[in-house]
Each structure stands twice: as C-alpha cells, then as structure tokens.
Amino acid sequence: MKPYYEHQGITIYHGDGVDYLRSLADDSVDMVLTDPPYKINQDYGSNIDADKLCSVSSIHPLMAQVSRVLKPGRFAVLFYDNRILPLLFEAAKGTKLIYQRQLFVYRSNSIHAYCWHGWMNCTDPICIFTKAGSKKFYPDTKPKVKHDCYTRTKMNNHKSGHPAQKPEDIIMHIIEWCTNEGDMIIDPYCGAGSVGLSATLTNRRFTGVDINSDWLVLAVSHMSNNEV
Ligand SMILES: C[S@@+](CC[C@H](N)C(=O)[O-])C[C@H]1O[C@@H](n2cnc3c(N)ncnc32)[C@H](O)[C@@H]1O
Fold first, then answer.
1. Closest ligand 1 atom number to CA of residue 42
2. Confidence of residue 99 (pLDDT cuts 50, 70, 90)
3. Which domains does the chain have, with CATH numbers?
4. Ligand 1: centre distance to CA 135 (Å)
5. Residue 78's beta-bridge partner residues?
6. Of 116, 131, 126, 170, nearest to 38 (Cα)?
7. What average pLDDT does the segment 136-141 reach?
8. Per residue in 47-70, pLDDT tens?
9. Is the C-beta atom of 59 inside 6 A of ligand 1?
10. 35 C-alpha vs ligand 1 centroid, how far in Å?
C-alpha cells in the first residue's frame, strides 16, 4: 500500500485494515489500539458498508492478524460495543491473544443512546488483551491507579466530525501504560485519527488505516491540531 500521508513518525494508509496487517511481519508491532466497525446501523458516509454486519464480522480475521503481528507480551486494546461483545471473544479463540479485562466509558448524559427493553445503553466497553509470551511487558511509566470506569458528559473537547470519535485523554492513559516512548502503535480502523493524535502527544510512532478517504482528510487535520 502507498501511504496517503507520512509525517514525523505518523503514516496513514487508505485501504482495508486487515489487508494492511497481513503485509506486516510476525511479532513486529508494539501495540494495536483500535475501534473496529461495530454498530449495525451507523452511517460512516460515502455509501461504504462500513458498519454493517459483513464489516462487523471482519473482527475474526482482524484478531487473527493482531495476534500474529503483535510482539509477545504486548497489548491489543479494542473499543467495542456491548451488543456484540461475544463476537470479539469468539474471534480471539484459538489466537495468542489473552483477554485481561474491560474498561468502561460511562456517558452520564446519554439521551440518544441505544435503548433496549427499558435499559438505556450508557456504557462503552474497552477490551484489553495481551499476547501470550514468556516475557511480560512493563512500561517505563508506572501506571497511576485510576478507576476502570471513565465518566463523560462529552466525549471530546475538539470534535473532528467523525460520528464515532473516541476520547483522546482516555486513549493517552492507555498508550502511556501499555507502551514506551518511541513504540509503534497501529490502528487499522483509524477514522478521524484519535489514536494517532494521542500517539503523537505521547511521543509514540503511529500507523493508521481507514477504508473511507473522507475520514482520512479529517484524520490529517485532527492530528495536525495537536490539542486534546
Ligand atoms: C468506530 S470507527 C473509528 C473511529 C475512530 N476511533 C475515531 O476516534 O475517529 C470505525 C472506522 O472503521 C472504518 N472502516 C470500516 N471498514 C474498514 C476496513 N475494512 N478497513 C479499514 N477501515 C474500515 C470506518 O470508515 C470508520 O472510520
């Protein structure tokens, strides 16, 4: 794949995220931090079937590739959706990815959230896996203890324009606690580049991929903004 954008340790590709991972060597990546397509009816624009079931099912080849390219002992962290969590765990079966735990983002003022049987969905899970290996990874920055549930009244100070933009302050905690400076972080579904911006602000290298070029335009301007 030819890079869509390259600047100071950041590379962005326009294409399929799993295809990109297939091009990487075994045990070569320090971290995968991503937010795969997971909502059955989210419209990501350009008539791309970016969030329908066939896209959601790409979690299976994704987890197989993540397991292959990640260095042993390192972290794969995925924003996901409560409704289809079993798919994620099913996709990790038979790989070297070991499920560790979940973090939660609690949207305390959810009003438009998905509602089922009287329960309003106000939490988004973030699932943490590590790759099996005899050597465990300990980051240079010792994690400060924080609750595993982040409460938000709004997700971001700066809106990129992407419908599924994730909070950079949370992503930055995760990055600092799961990698060291200079490490390479991959997001094969990078959207508007929240992981890329967070990687830049914490002095990590980043490669992102998205199938929709409209989001890549946003990603480049969002990452150039350099503010959270
Ligand atoms: C949940 S959003 C990611 C949002 C991102 N975390 C952010 O904060 O902006 C999922 C993204 O995956 C992209 N996508 C869907 N199918 C894809 C594929 N096969 N390869 C790469 N990207 C894909 C969509 O265009 C969408 O931008």
1. 1
2. very high
3. 3-225 (3.40.50.150)
4. 32
5. 34, 127
6. 126
7. 91
8. 544 445 567 888 999 999 999 999
9. no
10. 7
